[in-house]
Backbone:
């Protein structure tokens, strides 16, 4: 007499594992869970430096156009100081030059140690420490040429 062992044959166990894997895959496909995974891995966007550079370029072009509507250099500087180009930090890192109505040139993107002070009452110690270089008192990263 041949004794049979109790339990499931190995073939049945393998088929059950394959069936469970297929069911999980189908559930992911039909609930769009796998779609989210695939779409997130396929997205390759621009780097943050490229995005920042593109935004800064747009901000610079917009303020340059706005500054062209004024004939007063001091109001042009105030426009620049209060612009998105300055408030987002582009004036510190993104090089751009603006021409004022009187022909003077404002060079920006010169780093955090540069500041174009707009009010003449800044004392030398504040200018050396770069304190107060925020709009409306100054434009960080810029100088007048």
Residues:
């Amino acid at each position: 007499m041949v004794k049979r062992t109790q339990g499931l044959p190995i073939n049945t166990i393998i088929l059950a594992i394959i069936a469970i894997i297929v069911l999980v895959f189908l559930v992911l496909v039909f609930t769009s869970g796998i779609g989210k995974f695939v779409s997130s891995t396929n997205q390759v966007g621009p780097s943050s430096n490229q995005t920042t550079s593109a935004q800064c370029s747009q901000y610079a072009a917009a303020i340059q156009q706005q500054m062209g509507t004024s004939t007063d250099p001091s109001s042009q500087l105030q426009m620049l100081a209060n612009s998105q180009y300055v408030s987002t930090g582009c004036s510190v890192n993104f090089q751009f030059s603006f021409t004022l109505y009187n022909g003077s040139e404002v060079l920006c993107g010169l780093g955090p140690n540069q500041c174009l002070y707009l009010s003449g009452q800044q004392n030398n110690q504040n200018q050396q420490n770069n304190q107060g270089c925020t709009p409306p008192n100054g434009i960080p990263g810029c100088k007048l040429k």
